[in-house]
Amino acid sequence: MKQATRPGRVVFVDWHGVLSCDPFWASIRDNARHPLHAQLVASLAPIFTGDGAHAWMKGRLSAAQVIAGMGIRLDRRFRGDFLQRRLLDDCARMKVNVPLLQMLREVRPDASIVVSTDNMDCFADTFRRVREVRRPAGPRRATFAEWAFVCDDLICSSDVAALKSEGIVRFFGPWLRRHGLTFQDALLIDDTADNCVAFREQGGTALCWRMNADDIATAAVALSRWHGALAEAELLLAAARSEDGEAPAR
Question: What is the pTM of this model?
Answer without folding.
Answer: 0.88
